[in-house]
Fold each of these.
Amino acid sequence: MSEASSPMSGRAALIAIVGRANVGKSTLLNALLGEKVSIESPVAQTTRTLIRGVLTEPRGQLAFVDTPGVHQTKTDLGRLMNRAARAAVEGTDAVLLVLDGSAPLRDEDRGWMRRLARRSEGAPVVIAVNKADLGAAGLEEAPAAWRAAAAAAPAAPVPQWHSVSARTGAGVEELRAALFALAPEQPPLFPPDVLTDHPRRLAIADVVREKLFLRLRDEVPHRVAVAVEHLVESSEAWTATTIIYVERDSQKGIVIGYKGRMLRAVRRAAERELAEIFDRPVKLDLVVRVEPNWTRNYWFLKRIGYAP
Ligand SMILES: Nc1nc2c(ncn2[C@@H]2O[C@H](COP(=O)(O)OP(=O)(O)OP(=O)(O)O)[C@@H](O)[C@H]2O)c(=O)[nH]1
Ligand SMILES: [Mg+2]
């Protein structure tokens, strides 16, 4: 009997994964699942929408929601991302706050602690101090910062602390076991064979965006949006006409690259990964288009799936 079809225990939990940008929330989600459902990159604010990933095992089901990293912003896109992340903790069975243990704590980390400490009827809080493979310099201040946040909130939950490396997998099984242990007895939230409910077009667009983010520098990634305009699904292969939006002509040149090299490299890397994810060839037709000020254009954000 395969794991997915073996009888499941009665435990299930909806868990929001939150934290500031770049701490490794998406990498940790993928490590917890053992599958990649959420894109990862060194660029802050990589995740732009809520991404759900479901882990079903004989010991129960954990449904995670990966969220955008909360950050300072002046754009519609940034506000939508922050709002989605903050709202994602409502109605969950547990909140997994991710910190970067290799770096000093930042205001955004303390902001999350205050927000979670204040939730008197809130779900249990589990704090994963990530990037343990890089050392644990940041770990020392974190418990004190939580105590400070809790001091101002009489009914603050007592968090569980875990040291993990999403990159190497160290501590990930212990974290998974702890999450199953605190999952309430309730029916599963998703059918056992569901890995993610991320819509296919958004998933394809995100893979293209990840490959761009891994190659672009400075501010350019923050000026790039990707949307699948057409998806033709035949039984043999899929063809996705995918638009890469930038704000200015100069950025268009950067994305295309000298003699089209950048775009070609992105297409190849994305096609390779998409073929693995969807188990069939996926052909990408990439088009670069200028859309001035798209990060401040709510209707554009809605059209490409970044706004609800
Ligand atoms: N060394 C090391 N790097 C990590 C680890 N976890 C994540 N990273 C790296 O940290 C960077 C950010 O990872 P993401 O998973 O995209 O971070 P995030 O918190 O989802 O970021 P946003 O979506 O922007 O909020 C990437 O370059 C990851 O490879 C880890 O355990 N160790
Ligand atoms: Mg992310």
Amino acid sequence: MNSLHGCTALITGASSGIGAEFARQLAPHASGLVLVARRADRLEALKAELSRSGLEIRCHAADLADGAQVGRLLAALEENGPRVDFLINNAGLGDHGLFEESEWSRVQAMLDVNVAALTRLTHALLPGILRSGRGAILNVSSITAYLPMPTMAVYAASKAYVNSFTEALRGELRGTGVLVSALCPGPVDTEFGGIAKRADEEDAAPAPEFLKQPVERIVRDGLRGLDRGRARTIPGLPLAVMMFLTALVPIFFLRPFLGIGARNARKK
Ligand SMILES: NC(=O)c1ccc[n+]([C@@H]2O[C@H](COP(=O)([O-])OP(=O)(O)OC[C@H]3O[C@@H](n4cnc5c(N)ncnc54)[C@H](OP(=O)(O)O)[C@@H]3O)[C@@H](O)[C@H]2O)c1
């Protein structure tokens, strides 16, 4: 992780899963970590776990679905620092089921966290990252960004936004020394699945084991991909090959298959 050595990283969604693992893997190399999520107790426990001399860790409890709280986070950074040179936009949530049956509050939260907060934090922190002459932005996307996903319509669309935004930003920042990359994991065992599942939904069939990756591998591959200047990282060779081939198939041929899961869900 040459380019990230000595960085000060702000990690959203650091209270569990992929975000907490980013903090764990960066802690030996970073000089500062800013941990952001709603569950302050989890952030403090992670801080205690990772504390070592030479590493400054700050915890900031904030609901990223609330624009006022995002504003307070940015104001606190502006007033008291630290100066962030590595932004990891990782916080996110999903929702599984037919769109017409979704709760609006959940849909709104997905748009606010997965799209709006990610965009606003990038907008606010990028000028400082650029001034430092080095630095990085890593946006946690998903393989669902590659295809429209009936029964995860808004989630997949929010991740398609993340991929498009990341690619465009990467183009804008070429030659500035700032690295920009998207991490597109497939299924990972974290709290994500339980949160995306609706109360009345039956347990979905588990993802095939060969597509699953441990969270440690997801994060290691994401950091390595960023360090090597990759635009996107899909952890795991089988999944990377699968998504590469999928991207080659015109949507025209895929449409008949896309709605199968949704049709089954509607029959129930
Ligand atoms: N797990 C998967 O299968 C999978 C696959 C592909 C992509 N991803 C992506 O990976 C990222 C991390 O997910 P994960 O798998 O690690 O899931 P997770 O264990 O559920 O972690 C989600 C994190 O986001 C934070 N978060 C959610 N809503 C928030 C809000 N309103 N304000 C602030 N923080 C919020 C949570 O913290 P608090 O609850 O404490 O606020 C938590 O730290 C997400 O962007 C997700 O879309 C996951």
